[in-house]
Amino acid sequence: MASTTATQQPIVTAKSGKMKRILLITVGIIVLLGAGGAGAYYYFLQKPPVGAVKKAAPAAPPVFFPLESMTVNLQSDDAMHYLRIGLTLKLPDQKAQAALTERMPEVRSHILMLLSAKRPDDLAGIDGKRELAKELLETVQKTGGAPGDPAQVQEVLFTEFVVQ
What we know:
Layout: H1 14-45, E1 63-66, E2 70-74, E3 81-91, H2 94-102, H3 104-116, H4 125-144, E4 155-163
Antiparallel strand pairs: 1-3, 2-3, 3-4
Helix pairs in contact: 3-4
C-alpha cells in the first residue's frame, strides 16, 4: 500500500479572516456605544447628591401699607395753597407693618410737618415729586422705627397728589 506522507494542513479561506475582523469591529463598536451611553446617563440623568446646591426660595411679596389721605397748607406769599396727598408705603413683610402701625401718630405728625414747610414751586415737576418721595422715605424710616433701628420701608408711593 502506498501511503502518502503529506502533511495535511487545514485550508484557510480568506472569508474566515474577514469575518473575524468584522466581528471584532462590531464588538468594539458595541462596547464603545455602551460606555458612551453609560457616561451620558451619569452626566445628564443622575440626581445631585443630597447636600448639593438647592434652589433659593422665592422672595416673599412686599406688603403695601396705605396711609390715610392728608391735606396741608403750603408756604406761599401770594395766595393760599394747599396740598392733598395720599401715600402708600412699600414694606418687606407684615412684621414691619405692625411695627410701623404702633408709631403711626408720630409718623403722620412728622410727615405733616415736612409737607407744610414746602412751597408749591418745590412740588412742581417730576423732580420735585421725586425729591419729596426721598424726604418722606427718610422721615418715615427715622420716626417709624425705634431709636437706632430705622423702620424697614422700601419705598414711598404717591396714590394721590393735588396742589391747589
